């Protein structure tokens, strides 16, 4: 069964990869689309705290380089009240980007708001509400005469070159009801500086991209980091929940509860880049890697608890199908599959002996030794699936924005490939420990600790780009 799930993911990946590569040469002609009753504009939200300023510049530059950004894209940046030198940071960002977008806002999320926990969810909830308020009060924006699409992203995302044009093109293909029940997701590739990462960071980065295209999008499980939807659905879903840490995983559930029906995740055929976990040295890399797996797992468990409470408002078939897919991915693939695949070949024969069903004779399996070799063959088959993980990420490189490539050397690639299984097994162990922790401690462990991003900053002249504590724009080569 586990191998069938891997085969399914490979098929889903190849289908979406083919679409991504073909779309790279597709000409988008929005002016020729008929029955466009309203003009589309975009509201994009990026939240940040203590991340390197260069990362934020790269993300905002990828938005500013979108076609017609000055005419149709408004951006709001959500800062936390505890952001170092926030006044100077706001001044720097406004000076650089106000003229590059239709509107550019900076909000500061105050501490201690009722129901808030620290993290992206509460920051984005506050920033998005304030940005919508500003637009509604801005008479020059003509809010009621346009259709606004909301897009969220992280501080370490590089948007694909035609993200918003591709989004609009797909938007007009749907009926009004379908648009309201649709969330658009861009496939994420965690490849920023990945060739400089340790094997466990690089391997999980490759696997996360594979799992997104293989399970999260086609199985309609949840959105991740960069996604878009109509402002109406965003408002009806009351923006994001400030009391939860995983605003992307919980989002689809909130919107399904609002609509009372299944919401669809449609892929935007444009690749977006993201950064893996990072640290300043090998020990910190491992610490950040394990810490983020723990956070993702606890967040997923917290979201499933939210779903169990809210599911009574959904149709029964929607509840059952979504729950089975969620459990299959987070509970089986991520938490159990690797350790089970290792243990199963060695315990299956022992269990059969214990119940008196030793497979010594048979037409297909002539003896016990053959049976054991078959089991070990299934164990080795896992590396065939890992080969496809690496291959699909490699074949996706021509569609990456900024022409980023994974320049890992061949010797390191071989070593990383051999360490795929130990990496996935360690991932499973961290997940099991996190599930046990959240089971025992409950809501007390559900807090958002921001990922460190210093290791993602591109090296220039052999030196790291300065972090946000140095906000002099003249110090940056941008």
TrEMBL record:
The keyword Transmembrane applies. Keywords: Membrane, Transmembrane, Transmembrane helix. It comes from the Eukaryota. The chain crosses the membrane at residues 329-351, 371-393, 414-436. InterPro entries: Nucleotide-diphossugar_trans. The keyword Ubl conjugation does not apply. PANTHER family: GLYCO_TRANS_2-LIKE DOMAIN-CONTAINING PROTEIN (PTHR36851:SF1), UNNAMED PRODUCT (PTHR36851). This is Glycosyltransferase family 2 protein. The lineage of its organism: Eukaryota, Metazoa, Ecdysozoa, Nematoda, Chromadorea.
């Amino acid at each position: 069964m586990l191998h069938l799930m891997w085969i399914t993911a490979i098929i889903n990946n190849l289908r979406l990869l083919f679409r991504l590569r073909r779309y790279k040469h597709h000409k988008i002609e929005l002016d020729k689309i008929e029955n466009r009753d309203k003009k589309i504009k975009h509201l994009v939200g990026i939240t940040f705290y203590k991340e390197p300023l260069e990362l934020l510049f790269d993300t905002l530059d990828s938005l500013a380089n979108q076609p017609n950004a000055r005419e149709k894209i408004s951006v709001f940046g959500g800062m936390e009240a505890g952001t170092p030198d926030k006044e100077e940071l706001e001044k720097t960002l406004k000076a650089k980007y106000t003229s590059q977008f239709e509107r550019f806002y900076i909000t500061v999320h105050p501490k201690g708001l009722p129901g808030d926990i620290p993290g992206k969810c509460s920051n984005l909830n506050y920033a998005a509400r304030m940005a919508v308020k500003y637009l509604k009060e801005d008479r020059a924006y003509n809010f009621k005469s346009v259709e606004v699409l909301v897009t969220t992203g992280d501080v370490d995302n590089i948007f694909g070159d035609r993200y918003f044009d591709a989004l609009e093109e797909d938007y007009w293909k749907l009926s009004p009801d379908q648009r309201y029940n649709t969330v658009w997701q861009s496939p994420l590739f965690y490849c920023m500086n990945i060739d400089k990462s340790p094997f466990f960071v690089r391997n999980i980065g490759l696997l996360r991209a594979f799992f997104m295209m293989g399970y999260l999008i086609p199985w309609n499980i949840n959105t991740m980091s960069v996604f878009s939807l109509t402002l109406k659905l965003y408002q009806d879903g009351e923006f994001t929940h400030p009391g939860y840490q995983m605003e992307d995983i919980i989002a689809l559930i909130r919107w399904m509860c609002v609509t009372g029906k299944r919401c669809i995740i449609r892929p935007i055929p444009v690749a977006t880049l993201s950064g893996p976990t990072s640290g300043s040295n090998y020990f910190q890399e491992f610490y950040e890697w394990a810490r983020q797996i723990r956070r993702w797992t606890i967040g997923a468990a917290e979201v499933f608890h939210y779903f169990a409470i809210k599911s009574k408002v959904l149709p029964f078939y929607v509840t059952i199908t979504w729950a089975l897919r969620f459990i299959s991915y987070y509970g089986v693939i991520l938490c159990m599959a690797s350790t089970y695949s290792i243990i199963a070949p060695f315990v299956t024969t022992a269990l059969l002996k214990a119940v008196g069903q030793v497979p010594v004779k048979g037409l297909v399996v002539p003896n016990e030794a053959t049976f054991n070799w078959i089991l070990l063959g299934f164990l080795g088959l896992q590396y065939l699936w890992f080969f496809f993980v690496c291959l699909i990420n490699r074949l996706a490189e021509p569609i990456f924005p900024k022409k980023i490539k994974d320049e890992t050397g061949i010797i390191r690639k071989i070593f990383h490939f051999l360490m795929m299984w130990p990496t996935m097994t360690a991932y499973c162990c961290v997940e099991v420990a996190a599930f046990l922790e959240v089971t025992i401690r409950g809501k007390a462990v559900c807090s958002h600790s921001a990922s460190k991003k210093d290791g993602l900053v591109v090296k220039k002249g052999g030196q790291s780009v300065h972090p946000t504590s140095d906000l002099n724009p003249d110090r940056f080569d941008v």
